[in-house]
Amino acid sequence: MNDNFRDPLGPARDGESVEGSPEGGAEREVGHLPVMVDEVIETLAANADSLQIDATLGGAGHAERILEASAPDGRLLGLDADGAAIARARRRLARFGDRAVLRQANFRELARVAPEAGFGAVDGLFMDLGLSSYQLGDVERGFGFRAGGSLDMRFDTSRGRPAADLLATLDARELTALFRKYGEEPFAGRISRAIVETRASTPIETAEQLAALVERSVPGKARGRRIHPATRVFQALRIAVNDELGALEAGLAASLVLLRPGGRLVVLSYHSLEDRIVKRFIATEQRGCICPPEVPICVCGRQPRLRSLGRSRTPGAAEIHSNPRSRSARLRGAERVAA
Ligand SMILES: C[S@@+](CC[C@H](N)C(=O)[O-])C[C@H]1O[C@@H](n2cnc3c(N)ncnc32)[C@H](O)[C@@H]1O
């Protein structure tokens, strides 16, 4: 089991202070603290008058700093799949006027959306993966354990299948595979069987119900751990519902089309599945050639398209102390090179 595999923005244990997870009430505007914001700005090198994309606006904390760094005339295209995030970002970024262009869209569509918005060749592309504290705190979205609303978990609530749908329709084998693949859940089989047994008499519709079911299904020793026993199951469902890894691969591929030579790709990831994809993508594009090692002379003709900006970075102790949710963050950066 990989102990680094936990979602920092994932649900906390009952009784633990849960930012943005109010008892009753819809959404408390507790805010989302942008993670490693100085390191992001430094790695992006968002210079005056540059063109930037923030593909994951969230609470727009990073976007605000990028717009400040690229003053007076730099422009930013901000995307989020979540319409509520776009509305909030619009308020926060209003003072930048038409320097901020915001669109509700999935970053898997970046290669189409960005040129349409006038951002076909940019100096920087930033992605801060996962969910925001606003989403976690909105009980209607079903991201947190104590959410009383339905188990939805979609970033974009206008499309796709909510988590409750998957729980109601996948068979035990499919659920097991999902919890293993996206959660590395060691008790995936037991949990899946419990889901199938329970739903025969009672539909599993709320986050509270699911968290309690998982807690009952795992062995006693797994219950005393620092993270809630349902953390991996919730994370796996969220990744599946939003096809987060597929979207990430498409978003990374779009960076090759959109970045100008010298332009920078900066990604903050929060668990090993995401980080592995980012790391491999940069390594492959830095190498260029994809011929098998036994082929003596390159026949694929592929040239390097990225240059890694060095080892990954993680937050310092002070940031982890003041924002515990930053604790699993890993930042990677790369620069587009001319082909
Ligand atoms: C960690 S938050 C970003 C926080 C932001 N950097 C800030 O400073 O507040 C991640 C955001 O990305 C959005 N998101 C996740 N996957 C996405 C995707 N494939 N396309 C577009 N937005 C996505 C989520 O809806 C969420 O609002």
Average pLDDT works out at: 89
Alpha carbon gap, first and last residue = 41 Å
- The Rg value, from CA coordinates, equals 21 Å
Name given to the CATH architecture of the largest domain: 3-Layer(aba) Sandwich
The molecules bound to the chains, other than polymers, are:
S-adenosylmethionine
Set out the fold topology.
Elements: H1 37-44, E1 51-54, H2 61-69, E2 75-80, H3 83-92, E3 100-104, H4 110-116, E4 122-128, H5 133-137, H6 163-169, H7 172-183, H8 188-199, H9 207-217, H10 220-223, H11 231-241, H12 244-258, E5 259-269, H13 272-287, E6 306-308, H14 317-322, E7 330-336
Bound molecules: S-adenosylmethionine.
Give an account of the 3D structure.
- Mean pLDDT is 89; it is low at 1-6 and 8-29.
- It contains 14 helices and 7 strands.
- Helix 3 links the parallel strand 2 and strand 3.
- The protein is globular and about 60 Å long.
- With 339 residues, the chain is of the alpha/beta class.
- 39% of the residues lie in helices and 13% in strands.
- It has 2 domains: 37-133 and 244-336, Vaccinia Virus protein VP39 (Rossmann fold), CATH 3.40.50; 135-241, DNA polymerase, domain 1.
- The protein has a 7-stranded mixed beta sheet with strand order 3-2-1-4-5-7-6, with helices on both faces.
- It has helices at residues 37-44, 61-69, 83-92, 110-116, 133-137, 163-169, 172-183, 188-199, 207-217, 220-223, 231-241, 244-258, 272-287, 317-322; strands at 51-54, 75-80, 100-104, 122-128, 259-269, 306-308, 330-336.
